[in-house]
Records
---
Amino acid sequence: MAKQTIYIFGTSGFAREVADIARENGHEIAFLTQSPDQAEDLSEFGEVIPEGEVENLSDGLFAIGIGDNAVRRKIVQHYGDRLRFPALVHPSASFGIGQRERIEAMPGVIVCAGVRFTNRIEVGAFSIFNLNATIGHDVIVDEFCNIAPGANLSGYVHLRSGVWIGTGAAVNQGQPGAYLEIGANTMIGSGSVVVKSCEADSVYVGIPAKARG
Ligand SMILES: CC(C)(COP(=O)(O)OP(=O)(O)OC[C@H]1O[C@@H](n2cnc3c(N)ncnc32)[C@H](O)[C@@H]1OP(=O)(O)O)[C@@H](O)C(=O)NCCC(=O)NCCS
């Protein structure tokens, strides 16, 4: 990807982390916010631009520095195909055979420092792989998921759209032809251990992880 400015939606801590990844790849960055007056002081990181300017920047490249899966989805629904969202991959991430190319082809994917992918992994658009997560073989991560720092997905696991895996959680392996599946929009609490498939639209916590109330 040619070096140019990446316009990052969001001004939170995660937006700054996305800025770091863009810079590690040689890009300039600027942040986009709906309320520039309330944006934290980001002068040491880059310029803050009102989101209303997006239509004038539409030749540029964009990233979404917002961890909330539903908010990322709304931004993409709003701007549709008008904006280009390249995958952003930290140089310290590691990949099994053929995997880097497959992940870099997916729009809006963000891979933070230290993430390790093995092989035969499918990744959906706009999913986030945060610091030091590990993604085992034969895993499917649908679009708009978020894998928090240090989470570990074993082999033969399928995350449906919008799943959140909390910091340091572990997802045990499924089997060929019988993947361990986490239903759409379900959240797995930090430090939890998932030992079997989980329903959609739920919160699971604990060891072993159980649906909360
Ligand atoms: C699971 C989670 C979403 C629940 O948040 P919440 O709805 O605000 O829940 P609360 O803090 O009110 O806790 C509700 C109950 O669940 C328990 N609980 C919450 N998180 C838990 C966890 N990770 N593991 C075990 N139990 C947990 C609480 O102890 C509490 O139990 P109680 O009712 O017996 O007192 C949240 O705790 C969590 O783990 N979020 C992920 C954080 C993360 O990974 N961030 C990444 C940043 S990059």
Note: The pocket of coenzyme A is lined by residues 67, 130, 148-149, 166-167, 187, 189-192, 203, 205-206, 212 (CB under 6 Å).
---
Amino acid sequence: MYETNDSELVGKIVEIRKKSLNKLRRDFRERPVKYWLEKDRLLNNTGTSLVVILATRGCNWALSNGGGCSMCGYIYDAPITIPDSSSLIKQFDSAYEASISVKAPLAIKIFTSGSFFDEREIPKAARESILKKINMDKRIEEVIVETRPEYVNHEILRECREILGEIYFEVALGLETSNDNIRNLYINKGFELKDFERVVSMAKNTGVGVKSYVLIKPPFLREGEAIIDSTSSAIDSSKIGVNSVSFNPCTVHKGTLVEHLWKLGKYRPPWLWSIIEILKRTSEKINNRIRIICSLAGMGSKKGPHNCGKCDKKIRELLNEFTLTQNPEVLSNVECNCKQEWLDYCEKEFI
Ligand code: SF4
Ligand SMILES: [Zn+2]
């Protein structure tokens, strides 16, 4: 690991965040930031997901003096005028319409690039109305929302569980790593493993599932260290009792500390070979007990996870196939000359 001075690091994150927020010209929206349909791995089978990113006030951690996470630029998607409940419901409705002709089974992923349970982002009235609408639709088998742990309590989980009836409800948390030092010194996440464990235990008591997001290659970790960290974080998440792990290979977002390091030549997004290695090692240990997903965001681009450029497309397809089938054997169907370059880059002693 590289040496860092954490107060200097937080200062840098806050400085970059403030500068980028000041430059931003945001406006009011009644449309979501984005929405799309995708073939996806549901808990027990394959199906379709409607993914909707609602435009809210934005993540409070990123807006706070804490500065937010070192790799995350989602706050720059937030509108400057805070949407009220009715505009949030309209945002959801406009995305939902896109799914009308989709056949079951369907999953709905409601993201805010912040916390679904932070009522400054999604007021209770909007939350209830959106979930009630979902419960009327018999095609929907799963609902997934994202949140930081500080907004989760028994009451909110019970309320969502009751509205959604038989639908599987999963709360996704950005644990990023099970290592408190890496999470707080390098990612500046602002919470500890015990906060995550508290949510898992509350969710279990209320019949709610949990997904753990694991960040592949936080800043300041070498490639080989990142492989070890992500693998052990997924295995630890499984031991703690999550239902799903979603690996998020780090991409370089504008206006972040990671982008600053990348410009200085001090950060390279993960190699796709590393992602394959992590998925193989994790699958071997977890042996299909929980769902394992790999995000393909930014894959194959200079600012995203990449290899040499020749094998990236093929590997992207295989990673998608892995998510859909949960079969790690598909990850062996690729070879490329750049594998040796990756091995050298990793500094073998760390693997
Ligand atoms: S990663 Fe999540 S918690 Fe961190 S700043 Fe981004 S939205 Fe907020
Ligand atoms: Zn290659």
Note: The pocket of iron/sulfur cluster (ligand 1) is lined by residues 59, 61-62, 68-69, 72, 74, 113-114, 148, 174 (CB under 6 Å).
